[in-house]
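Proteins fold reproducibly. Next comes a concrete instance:

***
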Amino acid sequence: MPASYAADLALFVDGAWHAGEGRDTRPVVNPATGDAIAEVPLASIADLDAALAAAERGFKIWRATDPGARAVILHQAAALMRERADAIATLMTREQGKPIAEARGEVAGAAQMFDWFAEEALRHYGRVLVRPTGQRSIVIQQPVGVVAALSPWNFPVYLMAKKLAPALAAGCAVICKPPEETPGCTSAIMHCLEDAGLPKGVAQLVFGVPDTVSRHLIASPIVRKVSFTGSVPVGQHLLKLAAEGVKRTTMELGGHAPVLIFADCDLEKTLDMVVPQKFRNAGQVCVSPTRFYVEEAIYEDFLAGFAARTAQVPVGDGFDPANRMGPLANIRRPEAIEKLVDDARARGARTMAGGERFGDGGFFFRPTLLADVPNEADIMSNEPFGPVAVSRSFKDFDDAIEQANRLPYGLAAFAFTENGRRANLLGDAIEAGMVGINSFAISSADAPFGGVKMSGFGSEGGTEGFDSYTVTKAIHQA
């Protein structure tokens, strides 16, 4: 891994690192201070063409590589991530702002992703169909080809790994376009793959103007699959571009996760779970619990307990181990959240905790709880993607389900109840790709992760995530 952070930010194309060298650059900002700490080079069209050509060559090599050999390299990359976890986490906290403990956990999750998909490369089977004696029909799955993997800044290492690991395990070549906000920690993952022995051309890393990069890569006939994690509007735009070439897509788009709190839950235990989860990564989580619907009988008690815990969340620089929430990731986020909070207040919402920016430097916003937020408030329909929880009461089961399902999004949802029958009904009735009941553990390497409705389609993780990087072929022999 490079010793000098600022000097070694570079593109990785065809097995070589390419730094500034006359390229346009963009500043990398520490969100805890607002100061620029480096410049990241932006890929030119020539760089993108070189990445496409290298990936096309790399795919021919990698698809013919024995799955066991692929698995060895992925396992070695995972081992290197664990060895370098402190260094990678330090880069992430400096660039993205999250507490250092959360950053270490993210690196561990990325390593687990590589390990699991390394094994999945060996577990992936076809099938033989029943035919008369002397005839054979088999169904196999082959790698889809070159993949454009576009990942965001909120979990820069983990979400890039979610695309890289299954694609490489399946035998695909990949062009990664991680966020320009977090080039150091994502580059460190590519260094792990390089040092693990990944053949050159199999994986590329490019930074650049997002629209320029995505348009150019998706327009190329070399790219056969697009995997994107990000907002609904950008996802819609990329789907239109992909449709021109009838390219396969996986779209993990935005959500606005409801949380249904029933009166029979263990309230203190529930509060101890939901408050830290709400403010994890400063609420910049696509599955962050945000819309809290609480049964009338315990509504005020819930608000009091949530507000008290929220006021005690220590916020500051992610390198201070005492802090449990860092800054927002960029200068745009505090202003956007402030606007949503002010609109909710103007429409009658009560501020139970937080509700304002703070600090002389950096992009900080206090952990916030709003009560009695009307559905007409913008924040009830637009994902805040920040440290704000909004709450309303509900009367009964049907009212709760109606509120949970009223938006056109369906990524994740959560519910807390001690009634087993109700838990079964909730799992069936809530419109979301993932439902956590008395749990927030909905993302793991062996489980599918994805949404319904406008929150996208396709899955990352699990056998479903592996399958999404393959094409099915039926072979019939008489």
About this structure: The longest strand covers residues 136-143. The chain is about 40% helix and 25% strand. Residues 59 and 266 are 53 Å apart (CA to CA). The chain has a mean pLDDT of 96.
